[in-house]
Amino acid sequence: MRQSQRRWLGWGIGAAVLIFVLYQFRNNPQWKNFQWDRLGFLLTHLNASLLILAIIVGLSTYLIRAWRWKFFVEPVKKCSLWILFKGQILGFSSIYLVGRAGEIVRPAYIARAEDLPFTSQLAVWVLERVYDTVALVVLLALGLYFVPVRGLSARPAHLVHTVRHAAAGMMVLCVLLIVSMVLYRIYSERLLARSGRLLRFVPEKFRGHLEGFLRSFASGLEVIQSPLDFGASVLCTAILWGLNVSVFWLDFRSLGGRLGALTWVEAALTLVIAGVGLAVQLPGVGGGYQVAVLVALEEFFKVSAAGAASAAILTWVTVMVPCMALGLALLIHEGLTLKKLKMMTERESQLAAPEP
User: How far apart are CA 156 and CA 74, in angstroms?
Assistant: First the structure.
C-alpha cells in the first residue's frame, strides 16, 4: 500500500471513529439541548491572563523536551539546545498538521542538523516514547486512585475498572521494555556477533538490513550509559508532564464555573484520556483529541455539554495552535516547506538502512 493510500486510510478510520462518537453524543439528552449561546459566553468571558499563562507554559514544554533530548544524546555529542528546540517544534507541528506520519521528523531533523547517525536519534526517540508512556501511566494511576469519580453510570464505571488493570499492564510492559533496552545495550556486541545464527529464520535478502539496523541502534543506545544523564532525563520528564497537566488546569481555571473548580489531579486524568484520543488524531483538526476531552469532562466530572465543548476547544487552541504557528515560522526561517521536510526525513531513513 502506497504512503498516500495509507494516509487516506488513516484519515478515513479517524473520521469514522469521530462520527461514531458524535453520533453517540447525539442520543445524549444533555447534547440534544446544547446551549450554543452558553458556549459562546464561556469562550468570550474567560480569564485572558490565565489563558496567556497556559500558552506560555505549553510552549515551555518543548524547551523541556529539548533539554531532555540533550541529556539523552550527551554521551554521543554535545548538541545545541536551540537546534534541539527547533527539532521539537518542527516535529510536533508536523504531527499536528499531517498526523502520526510526522513523528519521524524530530529524529531526522536533529540527525541532519547535528551530523549524527539517524539511528542514534531514532534510539533517543524510542527512549523518549518509553519515558512518556511511563509518565502517562503514573498520571493515570494518580487520577484513578485519588480523584473521587463516584456516581458514574455503568459505561464509565466499567471504563475505570478496565483502565486500572490496563495501566498496571502498561507499567509492567514499560519496565520490561526499559530492562530489555538496557540489557541489549550491555550485551549488544555478543548478540550481534551471533546475529547470523539468531536471525537465520529471517529471509536472506532482509537479514543484512536488519543486522545493520540493530548494530546502529545499539550504538545509539549509548545515551543510557551515564547515571547522571539518566537522572536528569527522569527529572526533565517529571517537570515536562507536570507542565503538560498545568496547561489543562490553567485552561479550566480560565473558564471558571465547574471547570474552574477541577483540581490539578482531575486535570491530569483529563489529559491522560485526551492522550488516548490522539490515537485517532485527524491531521490539522485533531478530532479524537477533542472528543476524548469531552468524554472525560462529561462522564467523569459531570461538566455541562457547553462547558466540556469550550474546554475541548480551548485545550486544542493552547496546546496545538501555538506550536503549529511557531513551527510554520521556523519553516519559513529555515527556508523549508512541509514537502522538503518530508523529503529530508525520507532521505535520512534511507541512509540509515544499509544494503545487505
Answer: 44
What does residue 26 show for φ and ψ, rounded to 5 degrees?
-60, -30
- Count structural domains, the chain: 1
Beta pairing partners, 286: 282
**Is 278 inside any structural domain?**
yes
Give domain status of residue 207, yes or no. yes
Task: With beta carbons less than 8 A apart as the criterion, state whether 69 and 85 touch.
Answer: no
Q: Which domain holds residue 49?
A: 38-351
Q: List the chain pLDDT tens, one digit each, 356 residues.
A: 555 555 556 556 555 555 555 555 555 544 444 455 555 656 667 888 998 999 999 999 999 999 999 988 887 788 999 999 999 999 998 887 776 667 888 998 998 899 888 877 887 888 888 888 888 888 887 777 776 655 555 555 665 666 566 666 766 777 787 777 777 777 777 777 776 677 777 776 666 667 766 776 676 566 566 677 777 888 999 999 999 999 999 999 998 888 889 999 889 988 887 776 665 544 444 456 677 787 778 877 888 877 888 888 888 888 888 998 999 898 888 887 777 777 777 776 666 554 43
Retrieve residue 300's grid coordinates.
467523569
**Strands, E assignment, the chain:** 281-282, 286-287
Domain assignment of residue 7, yes or no: no
The backbone torsions φ and ψ at residue 37, rounded to the nearest 5 degrees and listed phi first, read -65, -35
Single out the residue of 91, 79, 81, 85 nearest to residue 115, CA to CA: 79
Give the Cβ contact number of residue 284 at 10 Å. 12
Cα–Cα distances in angstroms (integers) from residue 261 to residues 179, 211, 300, in the given order: 41, 55, 14
- If phi > 0 it is left, if psi is from -120 to 50 it is alpha, else beta; for residue 151 that is left
DSSP 282: E
Query: 226 in a domain, yes or no?
Result: yes
Residue 121: other Cβ atoms inside 10 A: 29
Q: What type of residue sits at position 59?
A: L
Give CA–CA dist 232/71, Å, rounded: 7
